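Why do we bother with holo predictions? Because pocket geometry can differ from the apo form. Keep that in mind while you read this record for protoporphyrin IX containing FE.
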Amino acid sequence: MQDIQNLDDIKQMVNSFYDKVRQDEFIGPIFDEQIQDRWEMHLEKMYGFWQTVLLDIHAYSGSPFPPHARLPIQKEHFDRWMVIFTQNIDEQFAGPIADEAKWRAGKMAEMFNYKIEYFRNANQKPLT
Ligand code: HEM
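The structure, written out:
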């Protein structure tokens, strides 16, 4: 099995991942609800994001966290996201870059979840 090597591989990884995500009854509806008819734009953005992370080509310059801050998601959703992401890579790619993709995704899922929990708890505190 080959490693992730170029933009075509990134597109293959991203497209197949979001195909599976959209079919998943637990997290699929959360994406569709938010993205609606902007899927093409989302996929383009994600090609750029993963190119930047994995191939060192600066094709993304956004802030990954803010769009997630108000989504109705918690640890169980990130866990499902990670299972689909990991399986999807392992089905098609193997090597250091494929490993890096799984590692980075895991770290970001952890950080997103931590921030979401932190803000949720902070907002629940009484003001006094
Ligand atoms: C269950 C977990 C997750 C859900 C439901 C989710 C959902 C979404 C949605 C709906 C958007 C598009 C926002 C919009 O354009 O309206 C988005 C953007 C994005 N997501 Fe996630 N996401 C999840 C986990 C992750 C993880 C673990 C990563 C780490 C790789 C990630 C990386 C990104 C990035 C980079 C963007 C683009 C941000 C930008 O607009 O610049 N997401 N996500």
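The domain at 7-124 is CATH 1.10.490.10 (Globin-like).
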